[in-house]
């Protein structure tokens, strides 16, 4: 595939949707590689409006028409999780490669089915776990591999999942994110992305004990002051072992922090310590900062600057399209070279297995063994 890769986007609402805020500018920054050819939404009228507003040539009537079009090479599925399975099935039927937002399926069973159909069709399915390719995460992985902290002794993460706190002001997604049945909640989205990054840096979970709970029960609607019920988790606690057996603890709680730091990830080792911080627990959506310390001086942690090799590239300055663009660039490399530098659907299944284990451990109140090997992403 030497010409520009022709892509169609499913679920583009100008200025509102994740596709508009992240995928569109990401692909525009890669205009030498990708050509945005089409859009498909829930209706022809909606697709027409999006195509006009965004300067996209073709407004498709539906996903089936897009999947059947010879003008499309890749389909980006950016809609709500409960619709991923049917859209991926349609794309696969048309022989298209797929970029699917995370979570790829509404639960492990759907994810396995989707990975199987992509594999059998011989197309590339990319799982949108973009925190894995954030420059800070990849450099953190290298620091650990190079022995910055020595032997990893333990790791601790505390984070805030902003949409599941005292109030929820996103009218577009309120019911969707607050109902656990939809598979789009604090565990699967912000914590899921961070789990992907943690496994990229520290390796595989071997066993876990967890608490997945909804403590608030109600959430405030800012426009009216009404308190409405919700059942998605607002507290997730994971205790376990990772890598060569190092203890790890993670605690996500709903809401935003009282301050500017809502994600703190610490790695303690025999030779030093590393710390990652961000505005909130959506590690795929926030600017991450690294700091570290080694040796006998324990008075302070010093900021760590990324080497130029980790920052070069024509990436958007905004974190959201920036990380998505990095993932699309890897996808293009894989399509052209037959490599697998981007996270695949098979990789997504293994992350789904970790989340499934977290849910089972909470339901049973027992330690659960985790068999979900992570495939470290190669450098393109």
* CATH level 4 superfamily of the largest domain: Dihydrodipicolinate Reductase, domain 2
Based on CA inertia axes, which overall geometry fits? globular
How do the strands line up in the largest sheet? 16-15-14-13-7-12-11-8-17
Rg (C-alpha, Å): 20 Å
Distance between the termini: 16 Å
Report the sheet-strand fraction.
25-35%
Largest sheet: 9 strands, mixed
Helix content range: 25-40%
Strand tally is 17
Assign the structural class, choosing from mainly alpha, mainly beta, alpha/beta, alpha+beta, or little secondary structure: alpha/beta
Tally of helical runs: 10
Question: Which regions contain 5 or more consecutive residues with pLDDT less than 50?
Answer: none
Q: What name does the CATH topology of the largest domain carry?
A: Dihydrodipicolinate Reductase, domain 2
Description:
- It is a single chain.
- By secondary structure, the protein is of the alpha/beta class.
- The chain folds into 2 domains: 119 residues, Rossmann fold, CATH 3.40.50.720; 201 residues, Dihydrodipicolinate Reductase, domain 2, CATH 3.30.360.10.
- The chain is 32% helix and 25% strand.
- β1, α1 and β2 form a beta-alpha-beta unit.
- α4 packs parallel to α5, α5 runs antiparallel to α10 and α6 packs parallel to α8.
């Amino acid at each position: 595939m030497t010409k520009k890769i022709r892509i169609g986007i499913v679920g583009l609402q100008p200025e509102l949707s994740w596709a508009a805020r992240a995928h569109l500018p990401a692909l525009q920054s890669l205009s030498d590689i990708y050509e945005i050819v089409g859009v498909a939404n829930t209706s022809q009228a909606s697709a027409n409006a999006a195509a006009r507003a965004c300067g996209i040539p073709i407004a498709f009537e539906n996903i089936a028409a897009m999947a059947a079009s010879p003008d499309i090479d890749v389909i980006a599925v950016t809609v709500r999780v409960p619709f991923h399975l049917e859209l991926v099935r349609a794309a696969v039927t048309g022989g298209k490669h797929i970029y699917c937002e995370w979570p790829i399926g509404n639960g492990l069973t759907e994810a396995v089915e989707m990975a199987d159909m992509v594999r059998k069709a011989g197309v590339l399915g990319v799982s949108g776990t973009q925190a894995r390719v954030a420059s800070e995460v990849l450099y953190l992985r290298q620091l650990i591999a190079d022995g910055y902290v020595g032997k990893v002794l333990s790791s601790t993460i505390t984070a805030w999942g902003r949409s599941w706190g005292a109030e929820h002001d996103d009218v577009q997604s309120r019911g969707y994110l607050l109902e656990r049945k939809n598979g789009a909640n604090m565990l699967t989205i912000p914590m899921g992305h961070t789990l992907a990054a943690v496994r990229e840096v520290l390796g595989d979970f071997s066993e876990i004990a967890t608490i997945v709970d909804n403590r608030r029960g109600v959430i405030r609607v800012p426009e009216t002051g009404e308190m409405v019920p919700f059942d998605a988790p607002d507290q997730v606690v994971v205790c376990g072992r990772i890598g060569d057996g190092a203890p790890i603890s993670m605690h996500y709680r709903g809401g935003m922090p009282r301050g500017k730091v809502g994600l703190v990830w610490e790695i303690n080792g025999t030779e030093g310590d590393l710390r990652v911080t961000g505005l909130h627990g959506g590690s795929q959506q926030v600017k991450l900062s690294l700091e570290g310390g080694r040796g006998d001086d324990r008075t302070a942690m010093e900021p760590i600057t990324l080497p130029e090799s980790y920052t070069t590239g024509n990436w958007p300055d905004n974190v959201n399209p920036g990380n998505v663009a990095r993932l699309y660039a890897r996808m293009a490399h894989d399509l052209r070279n037959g490599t697998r530098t981007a996270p695949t659907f098979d990789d997504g299944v293994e992350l789904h297995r970790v989340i499934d284990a977290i849910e089972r451990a909470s339901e049973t109140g027992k330690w659960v063994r985790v068999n979900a090997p992570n495939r470290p992403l190669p450098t393109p």
